Amino acid sequence: MTRRRSRSIVLLAAAGRASSFALPPPSRPRAACLPLTTSLQETGVDLQSLFGFSVREDAPRDISTVIDWAAGMGVQTCDGFALYSADEDGKDVYAATSRDLPEGSPVVCVPADLILTGMKAREELGAATYEAEEDIASSPDALDNLPQFYLFLKILMEYDLGEGRMYYEWLKSLPKFFSNGSSMTEFCFGCLPPYAAEVSLREKQRLKLFVEALERVPFVSDVLMKSDEITKWAFSSVNTRCHPTPDGDRCLAPLADFFDHSSDPNAYLYWDEGMNLSVYTSRDVGAGEAITICYDPSLMYNPSDLLARYGCIEETAQATFAKYKIDDPTQEHYDLGYDPSRMLVYKSGDVSQEVWDVLLYEDLGKEDRAAFHQAHVTGDEGPKQQYYGAYGAQVTDKLRRHVAFLVNELDECNIGLEMQLSMGWDKHRHPRTPLLIRHNNFVRSMFEKALENLDAM
Ligand SMILES: *[C@@H]1O[C@H](CO)[C@@H](O)[C@H](O)[C@H]1NC(C)=O
Ligand SMILES: CC(=O)N[C@H]1CO[C@H](CO)[C@@H](O)[C@@H]1O
């Protein structure tokens, strides 16, 4: 996310010594040179300290050793690479450098053998997981779910085995507080407009699927399986930090998992033939500027999916999904551009042509639908204009009602949320309230503009 520079920025960790790409990586982990602690208090002993560190939401996130650990593991970083936090409690961490980086510079390079993938985890964990795999493989999004399920198991296993394991220092650096859909409560869903609530709820159901499948994995201990906090932490870590690989798998690449998402990123991921994963700058990046990558181009205009999956808001986005949903879309709908990344409302309040076309198509009878579709795919503007001549006013009115409905929904959600804030309930009971309000306001601002435009038509 874009950082507001006015906020206090806390340096959480930096490499003790600059590790340059020109130099071979050190062979042993170096001791941390800068002992940096977050301001969070140590929490009391809880069940989870059985495992070395707590993953409770309010437990401190320990980022102090991960860069030096990674260097010891062969991860190369550019000069001045460091992790910063934009908030006082160190929950929200981003990667930047203390020096200007020109376009095309390597930022980090993670060697292939350190990268965790779904396939590698599957091989390592072996046949004991195959029963659980059947459950996941029969789920609707199996292709996405299977690699993530194996990464989820791998994280749980490493957490269970604790200190002394290869990935321990990296596990400690993972966030504990997530606002992602799987962390939301019934209360949160009630405060989101229908589409955002639906996608957030879907994330929560995915978590349930993973946790239920755990019961069929013999090596997962009861303590782990029954701890909602631990399973949610492992699930959210995988879900929000994994990257797709060129061969359709998913991976967790230590240190390459600290880059925030932006729809106007200043860096990108690059896989070499040896499956090492690098991050390169795609333009000049100033010292201290957050280095960002685009997680998934389909999230560029979809703040609700971004919220559901990653728990964040990107207020610089130039458009938002128009949230117009069709129950049983056909190939013809898709041909007209029925897709969240194309059915857009822009900051200016303009609505993308795809929205108009889909709405008009919906109002036509069978034969006219076929003719309109034909004109669209052949790029024949004449007949399309005739349909707009006949149905334009009707479609404008339908769109106006849709947009007005959403503005109203968002207002109602925010009334409930503001009330929580005024009572101070957000502090403990509903810590995600401010985030939900930001999401709703951001989406509302675009819809409100669209409503003004439609009213003026
Ligand atoms: C991948 O990284 C390893 C270790 O850093 C290096 O030896 C190898 O040459 C790299 N592979 C490619 C194709 O660059
Ligand atoms: C706001 C929030 O807590 N969102 C989290 C969702 O997941 C990402 C990736 O781990 C975290 O960085 C975010 O902090």
From TrEMBL:
One of its GO terms (molecular function) is protein-lysine N-methyltransferase activity. PROSITE patterns: SET. It comes from the Eukaryota. InterPro entries: SET_dom, SET_dom_sf, SETD3_SETD6_MTase. Keywords: Signal. Residues 79-296 form the SET domain. It holds the Pfam family SET. Residues 1-22 form the signal peptide. PANTHER family: SET DOMAIN-CONTAINING PROTEIN, UNCHARACTERIZED PUTATIVE METHYLTRANSFERASE. This is SET domain-containing protein. It comes from Thalassiosira oceanica (Marine diatom).
